[in-house]
Amino acid sequence: MSVNKNYKEAWEESYERGDNNILYPQSEVIKFINRYVCKRNNDGSITKLIKTLDDRRPVGLDFACGVGTHCITFADFEVEGWGVDISQTAIQQAKRNASFRGLSGDHFVVLDADVQKLPFENDYFDFVVAESCLDSMPLNVAQNYISELKRVCSGMIYASLIGADDSMQSDEFEVKTLHELGTYQTVFNEEKIERLFGSRISDFSFIQSISYMDAQSKKVSGKRFYCVIDSRKVND
């Protein structure tokens, strides 16, 4: 599928407005790294949990990295991080944010939104983080990227996905609010997660959904799925 030019422009405008200028990592991403990749110990040392070729340090991909927060955080776990995004604006900011930490910005790459391919060799990465991004594109585009993530990753793929709640009018729609205006949203349930990954829920190493309830109305006001799957269990 060719992504409409306006879709990419909508993301450029969103990042220019600072809609997703999130400078602190999501706790679920840190939990994933600590559980599956590298664990930080009380004495400041790092215990590597993931097996890598020739015992080298792990290499991780922050897919749709935005301003690079999680990719930059990889360095705290002695992981070589790469970040990719379709937004030139986001990647420029990611490089600046990396420089503030004394890190090189060379590992941040702008993707061609129409091609939907990753510029890396097979099994280049030991793990992938896809935080709050596969739900911000049409389902068939996300499926294309899952195929690519499987190709470039030899280990675990982490993803978080927005779930249906009482405020949702559709399971796929263009965003009309100022925040992320003009971008695309896909809402997930378990059946759709299986379609996205081409795998059964039972194949996942970890899957959890968290719902948020409005204290006054008692209605569910938000829901998110957190998933971890071995890339070798994701079908082409």
General description of the model:
With 236 residues, the chain is α/β, with parallel strands linked by helices. The chain has a single domain, classed as Vaccinia Virus protein VP39 (Rossmann fold), CATH 3.40.50. It has helices at residues 5-17, 27-37, 69-74, 88-100, 139-152, 190-197, and strands at residues 38-40, 46-48, 59-63, 80-85, 108-110, 125-130, 153-162, 172-174, 184-186, 206-213, 220-230. The strands form three sheets. It has a seven-stranded mixed β-sheet with strand order 5-4-3-6-7-11-10. β1 and β2 (46-48) form a beta hairpin. The longest helix has 14 residues, at 139-152. The protein is globular. The model has no long low-confidence stretch (mean pLDDT 90).
Strand segment count: 11
Number of domains: 1
What would the CATH topology be?
A: Rossmann fold
* Rounded average pLDDT: 90
State the fourth-level CATH superfamily. Answer: Vaccinia Virus protein VP39
Query: What is the structural class?
Result: alpha/beta
CATH architecture: 3-Layer(aba) Sandwich
Count every helix, treating DSSP H or I runs of 4 or more residues as helices.
6
User: Within the largest sheet, what's the order of strands?
Assistant: 5-4-3-6-7-11-10
Q: Provide the succession of SSEs.
A: HHEEEHEHEEHEEEHEE
CATH class category: Alpha Beta
Query: What percent of residues are in strands?
Result: 25-35%
Helix content: 25-40%
Poorly predicted regions: none
How do you describe this structure in short?
This protein has helices at 5-17, 27-37, 69-74, 88-100, 139-152, 190-197; strands at residues 38-40, 46-48, 59-63, 80-85, 108-110, 125-130, 153-162, 172-174, 184-186, 206-213, 220-230. With 236 residues, the protein is of the alpha/beta class.
